[in-house]
Amino acid sequence: MKLHAIKGELAFAAFFAAVGLVWIVKASSLPFWSGFAPDSGFLPVIYGTLLLLLSAGVIGTLLLNPPDGEVEREPLSKSFKLLGILVLTVGSLGYVGFAAPLFLMMFAMFAYVERLPIVRSAIVSAVATGIFLLVFQHWLKIPVPITPWSY
Amino acid sequence: MKITRRYVLAAGAAVAMTIPAGASFAQDWKPTRDVELVIPFGVGGGSDLMARVIGKVIVEEKLLPVPLVINNRPGGGGAVGIGYVSASRKEDPHTIILVNGTTQITPILTPQAKTLTEVQPVANFMLDDFLLFVKGDSKYKTIKEFVDDVKSKPDKTFNFATGGTTDVMAITIFSKAIGKEINPVNFNSGGEALTALLGGHVDGVIGNPLEFMGHLESGAVRALGVFRDDRFAAFKDVPTMKESGIDAPNFQMWRGIALPKGVDENVQKYWQGIMKKVAESETMKKYIADNVASEAYISGKDFETFLVNQEKLYRDLLGKPAAQ
Amino acid sequence: MESLVDLAGGFATAISPTNLLMCFLGVFLGQLVGVLPGIGPSAAIALLLPLTFGADPTASLIMFAGIYYGAQYGGTITSVLLSVPGESTTVMTSIEGYQMAKKGQAGTALGIAAIGSFFAGTVGSLGLTLLAPPLAEAALSFGPPEYFSLVVLGLMALAAVSGASVLKGIAAGIAGLLLATIGIDPQTGVSRFDFGAVWLLDGIEFIVLTVALFGIGEVLASCSQATEAPVAEVKNVLPNREQMRRSAMPIVRGSFVGFLIGVLPATGATIASFVAYIMEKKISKTPEKFGTGMIEGVAGPEASNNAAAAGAMVPMLALGIPGSGTTAIILGALIMFGLRPGPELFTQNSTLVWAVIASMYIGNVMLLIMNLPLAGVFAQLLKVPYKWLYPPIITLCIVGVFSQANSLEDCWLLAGFGALGWAMKRYDWPAAPMILGLVLGPIFESSLRQSLTMAHGSFDIFFTRPISVTLLVCAVLFVSLPVLAQIFGKRPPASVGECA
Questions:
Q1: According to the per-residue pLDDT averaged within each range, which of B255-259, C36-40, C100-104 is highest?
Q2: For residue B216, what pLDDT is reported?
């Protein structure tokens, strides 16, 4: 029962431990020492080991002293929706340029996630997209690909 | 995936472009839409500045009938920019890219990086020289005194600061020539190497003259020799290595312009013509002089031969001879 | 004093209408690019460089310097209001400043940042005026072993102030060091941990991680409260007497520490702001309240990053050695104008150098005048309900991060690390140590290698050089003092546990 309350936290610490493990494995194929000084693999192995141990420590502390009672957490669903939209947006940038995905992203967040009035959402999204592209593309001369034909 | 889509677009455009050009007269090709100048380095570095000078000359002297767009694609010692051009700009005559010694060295050290064979060299603009510096209050007045002392001590007694891979290669050349190893202490830039020399943390530096000029004039550092076959006009008093009896080859770093692979012969001719005008402009000449480098306009087949020889030299120095 | 006479001459040049205009243009542009994440002062200067080819060098350099220190003011605005650091130097501000904004004190946070920045900018310029040549000489005695020991001190200090969970704090710091190893190893040219991706060869850009962890992470973590009422009221911009009293010493300390760190080549304003924050937390009588909107945590780092920007001009002008990315580009500009950076610059081009230094006093006054009223205007932004605010914030993060290297892959990193930042917030893993690790990682590794190469493999080099050994002793004291204090019972154990 208590384990249920902290399983997310445990999984997250385990993720860091796994990253440490990846670094140890990958670094062990690199040379450790050359001449007088450490080579490319030396510090990464140490970092990986330390991260593994520290994450294990976090897990151990959690298991030994689980937090009393249910921890108040924010609901997850909205954050996941936003993250999903963000990933879709970034994924489409390479195909259709920046203007459409950025507009649609903001519009989806306003109108779908936040249930705001549709017309106002569209106006705000369009204006914001315009301002950002004006500043970055036009004033700062960043070659932001705006449309699919800008590539 | 996006690469494929871009490739199709770009290739389609290129085909449309090359068929009439190949069929008609050689000089007829002219850019018909915006030209993209790709800089495979971040804004602000030496090569970025040179590319921007090229861009400025092209725009100011109205060398192109179309606008020029500058696009920085930094990353991986030029690998990201070269990869970008070779993947999504293949055969596109409206793209030019800055290339330099670093873009040639990166793939030798990093196998997954695209090599210069992925682009079509057009012209070289300048060469950076390498000099051997010691601190101004050093007991060594000439390169001979210095070399004699190095030879009398065990290998790797002397520490030299370096500002990058090319400096390490120069140290390798020097070590091979005198038959004693110098211990390279690697820093991230010429400026940091200079700091280490001025602070007395190392015995000497081999590097490009740019950062050292102010300190040479004030006497804070002293140049003992230059890695070239003839004397360097900016430093008439500094002897060459060969003069001082050290058998070191001419060693310089180059910076030039390339096109995507597979562009038409006429297109290459067109761009060589543009680059020649750039090289002859006052702005470019001033830029090269301010950077204490040498003008060296090499184009076409000569440039390709030059690059093949450079590649062989780099591979030898890095101990990675070409496969086969 | 001689330098004061020179400075007077500099003022005479700097107050010409053209130079005043260029100074204003510089600080204004600096302020603008400071607000935008991704675009920093170095990119802004590089983009403007070709435009100034034929222009007057003095006027151009006054503008470039203005962009540099103006950006330190601008970055604060988004850090405080949106928790998106506009510049890497304002990461620490987004911790305390954003919490202050949530409490309705956004105006005050921006106000104290402007006042602190102004004070520090002026102190920094004064230091530059009086001490440039001798300080530059002193900075040269910092070789690789000294940098190594300095970084060790920084990492230990970090461990000592890691907040509620020391274990998680250190782990996050190590994770940052580990991320710093991605890409081409600058010492050997070998690529590591690139997972076969060419775009990872340059490693993970600092601003990408920062914007992701603080910007996206914050939005994802706090969007669920988004339907609640907006921050009720934007209070005064001018801090009240109590807030002034609390900020005075942090500003003074931040100015001095920031200036000294800025003078060291290869450190720069980002590290200076971290050190100032850590210092304030360490000195504070209530370190446990840090992270909840302590004004000291805004005042100290903000003063520190501005003083460091002035400090970084010291080795640049006096020795021709850039102390940061931005000064490296200003150095390139000097060369383009046919000036030789180096010790001769002060003697042979003294009019120019002193005019630039004088313009820094003027520019700081301009920034203060611009920022105090602006702080109020910007703070009004928070009256907009958060649900209307956060989608444009995400958009700003995406476009800003893209513009940093025109790279779509960086946008993927933004999404990935944004999710990580959200999880870290949710499970109370501090994000700042991870960013500090990413900053210090390369210096740590290269100075270790350089030192050992110089010493032919002997670790004695760290213990035989006086500055290095002093720094190491400080590092040991930093972690051991709280423990010793606990053992000898000088403090109640509970409070030690909180701050350790």
A1: B255-259
A2: 86
Which residue has 């920022």 as its token pair?
C371
Whether residues B76 and C142 touch (CB distance < 8 A) is answered with no
Top residue of A54, A116, A150 to mutate, by most chain C CBs within 10 Å, is A54
Residue B239 lies in a domain: no
B89 and B35 within one domain: yes
Could you tell me if B103 and B143 lie in one domain? no
The answer on B29 and B135 residing in a single domain is: no
- Cβ within 8 Å, pair C448-A75: no
Listed in sequence order, the residues at least 6 apart from B235 whose beta carbon sits closer than 8 Å to its beta carbon are B131, B209, B223, B226
What is the interface size between A and B, counted as CB pairs within 8 Å? 14
Residues B174 and B31 in one domain: no
Instruction: Name the domain count of chain B.
Output: 2
B45 in a domain, yes or no?
yes
> What range does the domain containing B32 cover?
2-127+253-318
Residue B17 sits in the same domain as residue B92: yes
Residue C497 confidence (pLDDT): 35
Instruction: Please give the residue of chain A at the shortest CA–CA distance from C409.
Output: A90
Between CA B240 and CA B219 the distance in angstroms is 20
Kindly state whether residues B82 and B147 are assigned to the same domain: no
CATH number at residue B286: 3.40.190.150
3-state secondary structure of B164: coil
Query: Are B73 and C406 within 8 A, CB to CB?
Result: yes
- For C35, which residue in chain A has the nearest alpha carbon? A135
Q: Taking CB atoms and an 8 Å limit, are C201 and B80 in contact across chains?
A: yes
- What is the DSSP-derived secondary structure letter of residue C83? S
Give chain C positions within 8 Å (CB) of B72: 405-406
Interface test with A, best of B5, B8, B34 (most A CBs within 10 A): B5
Find the CATH number of the domain harbouring B153: 3.40.190.10
Tell me, yes or no, if A36 comes closer than 8 A to chain B by beta carbon.
yes
CB proximity A32 to C under 8 Å? no
Mean pLDDT of chain A: 88
Find the CB nearest C199 among B2, B75, B159.
B75
Chains in touch with A (3+ beta-carbon pairs under 8 Å) read B, C
Distance of CA B26 to the CA centre of its chain: 31
Burial code (b: 16+ CB inside 10 Å, e: under 16) for C157-194 equals bbbbbbbebbbbbbbbbbbbbbbbbbbbbbbbbebbbb
Predicted confidence (pLDDT) per residue in B249-264, tens digit: 889 999 999 999 989 8
Burial of A88 (0-12, 13-18, 19+ CB in 10 A): middle
pLDDT digits (tens, 9 = 90+) for B281-291: 998 998 898 88
* CA B136/CA C219 separation, integer angstroms: 56
Contact assessment for residue B288 and residue B49, using Cβ atoms and an 8 Å cutoff: no
- Is B232 a domain residue? no
Q: Could you say which DSSP state residue B132 is in?
A: E
For chain A, count helices (H), then strands (E).
Answer: 6, 2
Closest CA to C433 of C174, C93, C221: C174
In a domain, B53, yes or no: yes
Place of tokens 């002008």: C317
Whether residues B204 and B67 share a domain: the answer is no
Give residue C350's pLDDT.
83
**Cβ contact (<8 Å) for C140 and B198?**
yes
Both tokens of C62, joined, read 């006054």
pLDDT of residue C499: 35
**Averaged pLDDT of chain C:** 84
Distance from C-alpha of C229 to C-alpha of C385, rounded to nearest angstrom: 7
Q: Is A37 in the B-facing interface, judged by CB distances under 8 Å?
A: no
Q: Does A105 touch chain C (CB under 8 A)?
A: yes
Hey, is the C-beta of A95 within 8 angstroms of any chain B C-beta? yes
Q: Chain B: give the shortest CA distance to residue A89, in Å.
A: 14
Of B217, A122, B60, nearest in space to C320 by CA: B217
Question: Which residues of A fall within a CB distance of 8 Å from C175?
Answer: 16, 19, 51
